[in-house]
Amino acid sequence: MPDLTIRDIQAQACHNKVTKGFNITDVPLEFGLLYGEVAEAFDAWRKNPPAVGGELADVLIFLVALAEMTGVD
Fold it and tell me: Mind listing the pLDDT tens digit for each residue in 6-44?
């Protein structure tokens, strides 16, 4: 697997959201969804530690897509 840059990951996350019909324009909504994913990761850490990895992956996806939406590398 080739090395990916943060920019590559951002572009892929945003492309995935477009392909699946998810939000790519409503920045306040995306911040709210990111907040929810962080809360889910915290709950998993407290209640079901093996699930933390999947929840943190969701956090990463939302975070890099939000960075892409706001033009931040």
Answer: 889 999 998 999 999 998 899 999 999 999 999 999 999
Q: How far apart are the C-alpha atoms of 5 and 23, rounded to whole Å?
A: 23
The model's pTM: 0.85
Backbone angles phi, psi at 45, to 5 degrees: -60, -40
- Token pair for 73: 């590398």
